[in-house]
Design a protein that fits this description.
With 246 residues, this protein is an alpha+beta fold. It folds into 2 domains: 166 residues, Glucose Oxidase, domain 3; 58 residues, no CATH class. It is built from 8 helices and 5 strands. The strands form 2 sheets. Strands 1-2-3 form a 3-stranded antiparallel beta sheet. The N and C termini lie far apart (50 Å). It holds the Pfam family GMC_oxred_C. Belongs to the GMC oxidoreductase family. This is Glucose-methanol-choline oxidoreductase C-terminal domain-containing protein.
């Protein structure tokens, strides 16, 4: 991943987006208590999972794979199962009275059973595709795994085994959102975690707006880039309207 060519495009043929199994929606509804989480995860048209197959053996989270010295010639691949509907919420807080000090950020990944349930289903689905189907077996001979972590393709792997694998090897894909979430406006929204109103104005601070992915009140269940562009263009129109008194 240190080679400049890597940044010109990932070595892959396709990326897939998929929902969980229809039968899993009932379980997820029970695992999520808030109305927002139920609405995000429980819609039948929601895309819960993104799966990427890379023609390179890489896991930046764990040095053991690098120590194995697997060849970077396409003979080893890796898979990424990405959660698109996270219900875990972190927080950003002030670390000191010095405004030059960075904030304290707790991302709180995989804190909910809903998130872990979806990731486990994604991992099992991908492992079955690659090691349990004729198409997968045609190019994937076996799964390489760390000695103390069960292979995802091991049918005896329990939920706890997969959770341990996620905790050991899981990493962020760096699409953070929601730290300045948008709400309708007013003191009640501020108390409930709202930071900006529907015109991107920060509650209680005159002349300050936030215009980026941090204003998203809920995850997009997709890549966020196009929506960030849309927020920027909409906010530009709003700022012009406010300046002209429209």
């Amino acid at each position: 991943m240190k080679h400049p060519e890597y940044l010109q495009g990932w070595p892959l043929d396709f990326i897939t987006f998929a929902p969980v199994q229809p039968s899993s929606l009932t379980t997820l509804d029970k695992l999520n208590s808030s109305a927002a989480a139920k609405a995000l995860v429980g819609r039948r048209d929601t895309t819960h999972i993104e799966t990427v197959v890379l023609y390179t053996p890489t896991s930046p989270k764990h040095a053991a794979f690098a120590a194995a010295n697997l060849p970077m010639d396409g003979t080893y691949i890796c898979t990424l199962d990405i959660l698109l509907t996270p219900t875990s919420e972190g927080n950003v807080s002030i670390g000191s009275s010095d405004s030059n000090d960075p904030p304290v950020i707790d991302v709180n990944f995989n804190a909910t059973e809903s998130d872990r349930f979806i990731l486990r289903e994604a991992m099992r689905k991908t492992a079955h595709l690659l090691t349990g189907t004729a198409a997968g077996k045609s190019f994937a001979a076996a799964e390489v795994h760390l000695p103390n972590i069960k292979a995802t393709s091991d049918t005896s792997a329990t939920d706890d085994d997969l959770d341990a694998r996620i905790a050991e090897l899981g990493m962020s894909m760096d699409h953070p959102i929601g730290s300045c979430r948008m709400a309708a406006g007013g003191p009640e929204d501020e108390r409930n975690g709202g930071v900006v109103d529907s015109r991107c104005r920060v509650f209680g601070v005159r002349g300050l707006r936030v215009v980026d992915a941090s204003v998203f009140p809920v995850p997009m269940a997709s890549h966020i880039q196009a929506t960030v562009y849309a927020v920027g263009e909409k906010a530009a129109d709003i700022i012009i309207q406010d300046a002209q008194g429209i």
